[in-house]
Amino acid sequence: MHEPKTLPIKLFGEDLLLSERLAKDVNKLYSLAKSKKEKEYSDILFETVIIVSDSLKLNIRNLRWYQLIKKYRIRKYSQPKYLLANLSSAEIFNLAQEIYKLEGIVFVETEKKKS
Length: 115
What we know:
2 strands, mainly alpha, two-stranded antiparallel ribbon, 5 helices
């Protein structure tokens, strides 16, 4: 089985890993995104939170069966509702950008020209 690429981060006082997302998670998000014709900022932020949440799932899968308390905490931290309540939108977008880098998607930054 393919081992996903990971990036260690510190989030909510825990050492966690950001990882590549599973194909089913990407497809699920694509279906959600495709269903909306016009997107508002809140829609984009919610989709970005889902990307971060899906990326944090690896932390739960890597725990042993007897690490119940840690599993509970990480499951709570990876919930979209918790992420939205405790992170700024800039932090969420930065985490998503790191996830995209893990997946091999690179964005070209453009500078805005002042007229």
